[in-house]
Amino acid sequence: MKSEIKSFRDLIVWQKSSNLATLIYGITNDFPKSEMYGLTSQMRRAVVSVSSNIAEGFKRNSRKEKVQFYTMAYGSLSELESQIDISKNLHYLLESQYQTIIEAINEASRLLDGIIRATNRTHNDRFFSPAISVLLAVAISVFYIQYSIFPTAPAGAVSSVRLFFIPENSEVVAGDIIKSDIWVDTQGNTINAVDISVSYDSMVELLSAEKNDSILNLWVEEPSFSDTTRRAKFTGGRTGGFEGRGIIGQLYWRNENAGGKATLGFDESSVVLLNDGLGTPAELERRQSDYNILAKGEGLLNLSSASHPDENKWYNQPFVRLSWPTIEGAIYSYLVTRDPAQLPDDTLDEPVGNIKLSDLTDGVYYFKLKQKKLGEEGWSSVVSRQIKIDKTPPEFIEAKISRDSELVQNKYFASFAANDKASIARYEIIEGDSAPEPILQPPFILKNQDRSVAVTIRAIDAAGNYKDIIIPALTWWQRPSIILYVKIGLIVGLALIAAVIIIVIIRRKKSI
């Protein structure tokens, strides 16, 4: 259930630096040939030095040696940044390329700053668990570079940070699989790391711990749980920090026995760190959630969606169908909201039983519903259904085909990157009329090394939207095979001319 850091390849900072190297090699491939032993060579040497020194530092045993090599990697990044500015001034780079590289350098710099600071202090760390210490080492301390670029003093703690569950203190049906989202409300603070331990009692049969739609984008380990300790762990961070309300992760669980009560809570060992450059633990408000277990058919409304049946899946269909069984004489109140904590008022809403939500924009919505039976004073518990909509295709940051004598045996390869509001599910490469080939990450070595067919690079998001970039085939005189034939023809032609000249000379000598 855990994902341990066993190799330098598991370090996010090494992965980012390696991706940066691929990006630099692809872009410098288009630099003027006159820069082969100038900027091209210097930038490639600098960017390779970054990931190489990180790998070397990870392998070292002493703290002093680790910091030494990590610092050398940091210096190589600064050297590369200077060379990038020179390249831009010489008009070797497009503005979009320059921005992409600078963002990648800044991200790697922030991560390196974190690993250097954490390595310096992990030997006397008294505050954090081993997991949060590793998190700080590989991902989190982004404050210093961030505020050296944007020199605005950070505010201290405004109030306590709240940890809570959605749904909170509700009723659930025995035998159903329940999803409890773990939420954080920073209440004006900015945070950048969490080490959260969720407790669950014997009434909870925990099925999985997940990180869907999490505000965290750096994970020390995958969410995990142990039925021995009855604890679930969520340890990760957020580059640049986070302020507001957002999801940490989810617990999926069930209970087969009606009539009982299940409880989820947060351990006192849970830690949330402020984005203040010191790793200060925030004061926490931990909210427990109790769930009354009802028998099937008892109490709760059965709310379903034919158009969006899976609450955890993204859909590109903006029209949502929702339905629930109605009771004669009962009234219903409902609302559609982006706020998971907002509840419907006590006003009657119509129509009931089967409704259609029209043309929702991209985002995550919650449909909340409650019922009041004829003759009863109180309302039922509120039931909620999550709806995730993404109609927008991904946007490419870069998509190109390159060849370099120092990479992948001088073969043509495709490099690409895209962004999406939901997430990129996968990429596909289509060469000519061949079937699409799924690709998780670049680069991709082309099968058709003659470049005689067009190449389509496709980015597909979690909702099924996609965007294509089509790179045309080379014209016939640019193709490697034609160039090779021309070279062979020239050599053969020159050899024949030389042979004819020699024969003529020999014959003239004989005639004399």
TrEMBL record:
Parts of the chain that traverse the membrane: 127-147, 482-506
InterPro entries cross-referenced by the UniProt entry: 23S_rRNA-intervening_sequence, 23S_rRNA_IVS_sf
Signal peptide residues on this chain, from the entry's feature table: none
SUPFAM superfamilies: IVS-encoded protein-like
CDD domains tied to this protein: 23S_rRNA_IVP_like
Key words of the record: Membrane, Transmembrane, Transmembrane helix
Protein name: Four helix bundle protein
